[in-house]
Amino acid sequence: MKKIIYTVFTLAVSQSILAEDKPQDLGIMNVVGVSPIGDSGIAAEKLPTTVQTVSSQQLDDAKTISLAEYINRYLGSAHVNEAQNNPLQPDIYYRGFVASPMMGLPQGLSTYVNGVRFNEPFGDTVNWDLIPQGAIDSMAMYSSNPVYGLNSLGGAIAIKTKTGFSAPKHQFETYGGSFARHSEELTSGANNGTWGYFIDLHHFQEDGWRDYSPTNANQAFGSLSWRGDKGSLDLTLGGNDNNMFGNGATPVQLLAQDRSAVFTYPDQTITRMFFSELSGSYDVTNNIEISGNTYFRQNRMRTFNGDNSDYSACSDSSGLLCDGDSPVMDTKGNTVPFSNSVSSATNNTSETQMRGKGGSLQSAFTGNLFKHENNLTIGASYDAAETHFASDTELASLTANRGTIGSGIFVDDSKVRLHASSEAVGVFLTDTFSITDKLAATVAGRYNHIHIDMQDQYINDSGNNLNGQHTFERLNPSAGLTYQLLQNVNVYGNYAESARAPTPMELSCADPQAPCKLPNSFVSDPPLNQVVAKTWEGGFRGNLNQLVDDGKWNWNLGYFHAINNNDIIFHRDGNIASQGYFSNVGQTRRYGIEAGTSINKENLFSEIDDWHFSTNYTYLNAQYLNGFNIQNPLNSDEVVAVQKGDRIPGIPEHIFKASLNVDLWKKVSFGINGMYSGNQFFRGDEANITAPLAGYWVFNSTAEYKITKNVTVFGKVNNIFDTNYGTFGVYGQATDVLGPQYDNGRFVSPAAPRAGWIGIRLSI
Predict the structure, then answer these.
(1) CB-based contacts of 620: which residues, under 8 Å, 6+ apart?
(2) I need a labelling partner for 31 at 20 to 30 A (CA). Which of 92, 268, 301, 718 fits?
(3) Conformation bin of residue 456: beta by default, left when phi > 0, alpha when psi is -120 to 50
(4) What CA–CA distance (Å, rounded) separates 456 from 633?
(5) pLDDT at position 460
(6) Taking a C-beta distance cutoff of 8 angstroms, is the pair 425, 416 a contact?
(7) What mean pLDDT is predicted for residues 563-574?
(8) For the CA atoms of the chain, what is the radius of gyration?
């Protein structure tokens, strides 16, 4: 046993211990939540899974523009790609599972805000632009846990927003610099012991570093709170009006000429959200707490994408425009004559109106069971949503700089008018029983039932429409143990199952005989099976505080192994990357090792300097376990086979993060953080037949000076070595637009060059 413990210590400590912006304690928290709602929790050392947490102070100190940016820089087993190339529209990956605003990705992380599920009802997507960072009080990232419901295949992200009791202060912060980016944020909170309020108003604007890529975001979030002797109530309201341009991946040959170039434009997303929630809790006794919430949420989204065209002149000399060998019909039932004004581009537009409502109720019981400490939480949730989706494709022509000019002619096959409604019911239980003072057992489970009703509002053909009703249900269990091996060494192990149901968007685009163009052209809805993930994880965690006077030294070393059954992927079918269909492809696997350390040491060299160090390393192997056929990414007329063991595209095999921060005189702060992300295969190359996108190192720095207790100036520099790298790759066709010399087929989303900003923070 001593040899095992010594090996664990050696592996954990032997990582290059570099740094972190301010104290980023990635070790064990004292108390963590055990369900999406309620403040009841258990001692972290008794939870048999991995939890990483972020506080509002850590977000402030890191000077990141969003929670996603913080996760990317500091949390273990997480990485972000910039497929959209907009700072407010990232794809967040954790252990190879994604939460993204992009339709078509297999969403594998659930997200909650104050206990309300924030995955969109139409595609389970997550719009990270909806909540200002300044309104976040805390965030916890959990590994797979069925209690968090649908989409928790890889884990869950639970966000808690501020109130007048958790953030009783007033603050104004503004900064500006590169890319004409500027941000202004006003927060105010106060309470009188019984009533409290909090409000956050945020404006973010930039021209963007790439061509034709401006962003204008306006966000508001606030709460009115009441606290009594035994109970509490919080009314939370939020809204936004965001206009974002993210022009995505660009052919590598064009990027070699101009790093800021875009392929075609515009690619615009407008989100307008309204969110309201009433939550509360009541202590029935000292050992029984009841908590719950009810909410209404509305999100209206519009997209406009100028793209190249897959249409061409008919080969039969009829003078018509064809899609392959079939003449293109417009929405008035007419064939479309071929001309330059309709053949070189398309304007793809969509409007999605989503309204959701529901609530959750849970009871938490703490106390002794058979003279042993026991924590039991049981609860239920109900979520109902209505979605109205409309999309159109307008024939267009390309301008000299690859913008688009619409013709006013709309394609009949691409017109979609879909109404989808869903109802989801969940019943969950989690119980942690202390078998001894050192050994604790946790069992949990959740029953999910979801019904989806889809009604086609445009196609009347009974054999080829989107009408359908789908029901999915499953009981997902988990069980685990923790053992306090030594006073400062904890060992844990857990098994969990979690599921996600096919979304209305996936069900509407699942016919190999009628591929669709995301997010347009939904034409059929054959059934798909729900995805079930079965996850094993275990490891060691603890501290070496006895070796650090006036400081903390936390470490962790763990292993995870997750197999998705009936996994769903998007099969490309056509000459453009977004055309294809969804299908179940059998099993996929994600397994790996994760290790981290963090040291916070006061007065390291003298009485004036405090140091903060941390590292995180993840080995992540994501692969297919069953073979299937895909379109050759280099030749759309060929089929290639995906073999068992081929890597899943878009997921790096190695992730390393390190950071160092020093505080001087409690007034001056300097920090540097760095990250390595390994190579990844291009999306569309599931067979791994082409070279992957190269891995990269990137470093960022921050500085802060507290002039007075109420006035702070700060600055930050991203990509301080101006590294030219890409975070995302996909295959596409550029020759029709740029010419035959642009025949590589590889499109990359480039990362931003070196950039800097300075700002000031005023607080009372």
Answers:
(1) 77, 95, 96, 590, 591, 592, 651, 652, 653, 654, 655
(2) 92
(3) beta
(4) 32
(5) 64
(6) no
(7) 83
(8) 26
Please provide the size of the chain in residues.
764
With respect to residue 317, please indicate whether it lies within any of the assigned structural domains.
Answer: no
Instruction: Identify the CA nearest to 536 among candidates 560, 520, 515.
Output: 560
Q: Cβ distance 719 to 753 under 8 Å?
A: yes
β-partners of residue 452 are 422, 470
Q: Quick check: 441 and 424 in contact, CB under 8 A? A: no
Residue 330 lies in a domain: no
The pLDDT tens digits of the residues spanning 355-370 come to: 999 999 999 999 888 8
625 CB-side CA count, 13 A: 14
Share of the chain above pLDDT 70, in %: 92
What pLDDT is stored for residue 29 in this prediction? Answer: 45
Q: Would you give the DSSP letter of residue 9?
A: H
> Is residue 44 within 8 Å of residue 51, measured between CB atoms?
yes
Tell which residue, 139, 167, 134, has the closest CA to residue 36. 139
Beta strands per DSSP E along 178-214: 182-191, 195-206
Scan for tokens 């040959």, then name that residue.
253
The domain that contains 456 carries what CATH number?
2.40.170.20
Q: Which residues contact 337 (CB under 8 A, 6 or more apart)?
A: 319, 320, 321
As given in the structure block, the two tokens for residue 414 are 């691409």
DSSP for 278-324? EEEEEEEETTEEEEEEEEEEEEEEEEEEEEE---EE-TTSS-BEEET
Look up residue 69 and give its DSSP letter.
H
Q: Do residues 764 and 710 lie in contact, with contact meaning Cβ atoms separated by under 8 Å?
A: yes
**pTM of the predicted model as reported, rounded to 2 decimal places:** 0.91
Query: Does residue 577 carry a pLDDT above 90?
Result: no
Structural domain includes residue 329:
no
Listed ranges 33-42, 84-93, 477-486; the one with the highest mean pLDDT: 477-486
Q: How many Cα atoms occupy the beta-carbon half-sphere of 310 within 13 Å?
A: 20
Q: How far apart are CA 20 and CA 576, in angstroms?
A: 42
Q: Which residues pair with 648 in a beta bridge?
A: none
What was the pLDDT predicted at 26?
Answer: 38
Q: What does the block give as tokens for 213? A: 């890529």
pLDDT band at 41 (very low <50, low <70, confident <90, very high): confident
- Residue closest to 754 by CA, chosen among 717, 711, 729, 714: 717
What number of CA atoms fall less than 13 Å from residue 717's CA on the CB side?
A: 12
Write out the two tokens for 134: 């300044």
Residue type, 641: A
Residue 200 backbone dihedrals phi, psi, to 5 degrees: -130, 125
Residues near 351 by beta carbon (within 8 Å), at least 6 away in sequence: 300, 301, 302, 388, 389, 390, 391
pLDDT of residue 527: 73
**Rounded Cα gap, residues 96 and 110, in angstroms:** 14
- Please give the Cα distance from 553 to 14 (Å, whole number): 13
**Do residues 450 and 462 lie in contact, with contact meaning Cβ atoms separated by under 8 Å?**
no
Q: Is the pLDDT of residue 388 over 60?
A: yes
SS (H, E, C) 646-709: CECCCCCCEEEEEEEEEEECCCEEEEEEEEEECCECCECCCCCCCCCECCEEEEEEEEEEECCC
In this prediction, residues 315-326 reach a mean pLDDT of 88
What is the full DSSP assignment across 441-457? EEEEEEEEEEEEEEEES
Q: How far apart are CA 681 and CA 73, in angstroms?
A: 22
| pLDDT, tens digit, 9 for 90 and up, residues 530-540 | 999 999 999 99
Average pLDDT, the chain: 89
Number of domains the chain contains: 1
326 within some domain: no
- For residue 462, the model assigns a pLDDT of 61
Residue 219: give the domain boundaries: 2-309+344-763
Cα distance between residue 120 and residue 405, in whole Å: 31
- Residue 157, both tokens: 């992200």
Helices (DSSP H) in 276-392: which residue ranges? 340-343
Report how far residue 395's alpha carbon sits from residue 239's, in angstroms, rounded to the nearest whole number: 34
Predicted pLDDT at 503 = 81
